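request received
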Amino acid sequence: MSQPLILALSCADRPGIVARVTGYLAQCGCNIVEAQQFDDLLENKFFMRVAFDPGTTDREEIREGFGPIALEYGMAWTMQRRDRARRVLLMVSKFDHCLADLLYRQRIGEINMDIVGVVSNHPREAVTTHLLDGIPFHHLPITKETKPEQEAKLRALVEETRAELVVLARYMQVLSDDMTRYLSGRCINIHHSFLPGFKGAKPYHQAHARGVKMIGATAHYVTADLDEGPIIHQDVEAVTHAATPEDMVRKGRDIERRVLAEAVRLHLEERVLLNGGRTVVFKG
Amino acid sequence: MSQPLILALSCADRPGIVARVTGYLAQCGCNIVEAQQFDDLLENKFFMRVAFDPGTTDREEIREGFGPIALEYGMAWTMQRRDRARRVLLMVSKFDHCLADLLYRQRIGEINMDIVGVVSNHPREAVTTHLLDGIPFHHLPITKETKPEQEAKLRALVEETRAELVVLARYMQVLSDDMTRYLSGRCINIHHSFLPGFKGAKPYHQAHARGVKMIGATAHYVTADLDEGPIIHQDVEAVTHAATPEDMVRKGRDIERRVLAEAVRLHLEERVLLNGGRTVVFKG
Amino acid sequence: MSQPLILALSCADRPGIVARVTGYLAQCGCNIVEAQQFDDLLENKFFMRVAFDPGTTDREEIREGFGPIALEYGMAWTMQRRDRARRVLLMVSKFDHCLADLLYRQRIGEINMDIVGVVSNHPREAVTTHLLDGIPFHHLPITKETKPEQEAKLRALVEETRAELVVLARYMQVLSDDMTRYLSGRCINIHHSFLPGFKGAKPYHQAHARGVKMIGATAHYVTADLDEGPIIHQDVEAVTHAATPEDMVRKGRDIERRVLAEAVRLHLEERVLLNGGRTVVFKG
Amino acid sequence: MSQPLILALSCADRPGIVARVTGYLAQCGCNIVEAQQFDDLLENKFFMRVAFDPGTTDREEIREGFGPIALEYGMAWTMQRRDRARRVLLMVSKFDHCLADLLYRQRIGEINMDIVGVVSNHPREAVTTHLLDGIPFHHLPITKETKPEQEAKLRALVEETRAELVVLARYMQVLSDDMTRYLSGRCINIHHSFLPGFKGAKPYHQAHARGVKMIGATAHYVTADLDEGPIIHQDVEAVTHAATPEDMVRKGRDIERRVLAEAVRLHLEERVLLNGGRTVVFKG
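response:
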């Protein structure tokens, strides 16, 4: 088997799309190994993800031949090699449990990515994990006054590294509207609450004060509207009256890291498609 | 073994409470079969629930003897027979899955309660379940104009039936402030969202619009502040992008009925103690 | 929109199946509203479920035209109207929580089925629920000696009612090998443990003795090999050391009824396909 | 507040134990900050865990004074400082996700332990994590022939380091009966299935073959009877038909590490008491 390609697409729904797409792939001699589609009947939109073995056909040829079909149906689409490690920039502040977790998963081959750098507003010494070896570390301190400059540096770094995804792994600075627009659709944040509950700062303390019986975490794309971006993945765990805010922080670390890692994996495998302010997630 | 008594108490924390309480019970010849306590170190409050076999000692005597201790420590307390079926009034609107579920659980002996009546703002024909046989059904229709009268009737019913608990089993009318004050601490509502997310009307439609990946339900005591009362129990289930609001409603029914039933059971077994706007729940 | 048809199929995997199937449907003027497929790369088998709006094309014509394609690919397949209520026979012994639950879900339209009868080895008085009104109740008592006769009666009943599915809703008698063969692929049982743990009798007591920290339930197709049939759905809940076997039974009732109801719904919506001793479940 | 002590005890149940224990502590001027007890009414056994602030009273004095009480009631008991880091020896084979996880949690202060060494039957190079710095690493290779010698070395290491707990963090060698006896009650293993399902080797492959819809992990004390020791903690996650054994291995890593970490934390905080072949776990 050759290395599969992944075709991910969305367009307005109309009859015959699946037949058209799969017919084309069959005609190219490709063999589908995984396929999912979703008809959003409420929005009249269609979403599809196909992983296929191109067989002996040239990848570039398949891609070019698909162009006219995509045009005909008005598709937003990508077609990429499944095995190519995407370039990812990780950002962190003081709490590095999500960072350490992502680094470990990359190290053992669980998440296929090329970590092009780690950015923090704190110095390297603040980071507990030792898995950083060989990964460029960028200390970009920030104050209210220097925010524009800091973000300019960050932006330069994204361009220089050609990062395809920026992960806010408990990076505790709010990005400017400009920056969120620039990173639109390619920046994932982990919020330490079960959104839309407890937006903003200190969500575990908010959760404790409200007396909820479950706490959670939410991985979402970053948008200008804080904690309102399209949700990719969420999870929760039960807590009791005996849990202090600190206990919740401890429990929450586990939820945060597994929710963020799952969102990153899903995104990198082209399993997440945007549907307005929501997402379509083809879990496989 | 005699039928156990349940002592539930709360007071300001100070050294020696457990020793004092359990010492008294030992001295009365009682045997503790279940005990839980919670020191809220942040609020400096103490909570305790003890189930004990009174042995050959007279129940009334034990209760009387405990009075001075409770006074000394400034305790709020109750001491009741565990096997006594509490009088419960159930309220419902059009969707009767929670009602049918509570009736069934009572019928098979899972929840020990004496259902003194079912109240609805819709006529009896609106109710699907047949388990109502023998339970007084009260049709109390309501409009904006007749709300004060309707609530007066409801109040009269609570008094006449000496209901100890009122359960809003998907009763879709907002109670007035007066009514919530009157029922304070003895009225449980099921809200069909994972509070504090999606307060107010049509929470599943809100959840769908926001694109959350889990939906839930919350059982809480009713207060004047809508959907803000002390939470007793919550649960959630995962949903995907493919779930329509109607799918969420269907899935939600299962969550709602098990969350409400658990909250009612916990309350009736004296396992829920109020701690300001939160609850202490001794699950056992 | 016309009432959709559901095409469910499985066959040996080979390139072009999806294109062939969806191409045929497009050519018939059908519009796909939901589609899922699964390539079992380990077994080289292909599974697909498509719900489609036939538009103005005659249903029978679509079905006939599909025959040759199915033949060509060696498919096992069905094509049925989605809205047709399947005929279901429910069986129960003493504990009727699953039965009452299924009856209620049918009553409110959550599960679309035509309950053609309820069979029990106990008399009607043993059943708590009142939702039986209008449904034929068959008391088929059983002893070791009368088992062959009882099963003959059951078989006659299945044929007479043309039941498409038999649900063992806590029917506590083991079916004979002959009977399981006869009902192969159309008989669902709920086992009150998280299989393969705690097969056989009194699983909650087994679970208590072993000291597990979670209990569960398993819905599976019935086969001659007891508690070994293809699993459709499972769920669990946490328990603590304080749970007695009776507490587990109580908690288990909730798990059993939701697991069985989900399995029945999935089966009736043609979402469950057999894959040897396992199942493919297209959850939607 | 002084550093609390933790008293953990078990004995045959009889009236007045709680009063006796808490009365003694009150008399010593201690203030209870957390207390849990469990009456096993089926086995007639009593279990208790109390965390208390000794105030100005000398710890040794409290301990000595408790001796006669423990003797009177036939208690098995310990009384230890809550803040003392217990000495822990970690063992690993090739898969180090549990090891890396425990090291990280210790590093950030989440689990309070003094890691006195890491033992592996593979050389240090096999370990991915870099958090080993400063922790003695012992390569103890093993073959069928050298097992007695290897275990002798291991035993010497346990004695030399005075390890209070040995954690088999995916250590894939079966300990001899002698060794399990030697480590009885102070050796925790993580098994990568939801026991009692799928004992023995390759549980994820067993789970795949059986077609279960959930996979899990189990942390338990090691006994001579393989995978039969008292269970401390378990958790599961849903899987679908699409999950290959490799997908299950990946998902399982997350479950394994959080289940093992929780079991280790519970054990080190004296929250786990043995009750025959089961455990009492005071979660707090």
